[in-house]
Design brief:
There is one protein chain. The chain is mainly alpha-helical.
């Protein structure tokens, strides 16, 4: 009777390890690509080159961060962790998935521009944190998608992946859009 439980635990541990390895592989691939590519500072976002690209990316990053906050609130509501919110309606899960896909789609042009125009740079603490958080974001996204579709995993895994995504979105916004809006300086630093 104890043998199936051990196998189930090993199986869950193996799935978690596989998802972790895949997530790390995606993050490492984005990192290596960003280090190997020669930055092309003339590459524009939707055809825009120069300061307007930074302004547009800051607006898009602010929207993405706001949507990430909505995603966290939706997830808390779905798992009944919001006080005084009551039970969520059935479409809340579907809304969470659709908004998550839209959020991912919104970040892709920003990431492509960053990767091609600047690459992964480690020239200053702000730039290094921003670059590394950008690499980890897509690994964390892949992990969350795989965790959603995995069965019999510990209950903490999905909230941990979602929380990691939200934190990374906040770090990316802080080290880019807020930096831009604050006159190219990070508040508190």
């Amino acid at each position: 009777m104890t043998q199936p439980r051990v196998t189930g635990r090993r199986s869950a541990a193996a799935r978690l390890a596989g998802i972790g390895v895949l997530a790390a592989g995606i993050a490492a691939t984005v990192y290596v690509a960003g280090r190997v590519l020669t930055p092309d500072y003339t590459f524009g976002l939707f055809g825009r080159v120069g300061p307007s690209a930074v302004s547009l990316k800051s607006v898009l990053a602010t929207i993405a961060f706001g949507v990430a906050i909505v995603q966290v609130l939706l997830a808390l509501w779905i798992y009944r962790r919001l006080p005084f919110a009551g039970s969520p309606p059935r479409p809340a899960r579907l809304a969470h998935r659709i908004i998550g896909f839209a959020l991912f789609a919104l970040t892709v042009p920003i990431a492509v521009h960053c990767l091609i125009a600047y690459g992964v740079q480690l020239t200053s603490p702000r730039v290094a944190v921003h670059s590394l958080a950008g690499c980890f974001l897509y690994g964390a996204f892949a992990a969350k998608v795989l965790l959603v579709h995995s069965r019999r995993l510990p209950g903490w895994t999905l909230p941990a992946a979602g929380g990691t995504l939200a934190v990374l979105a906040g770090v990316l916004w802080y080290t880019s859009a807020l930096w831009y809006y604050n006159g190219y300086q990070l508040p508190g630093m």
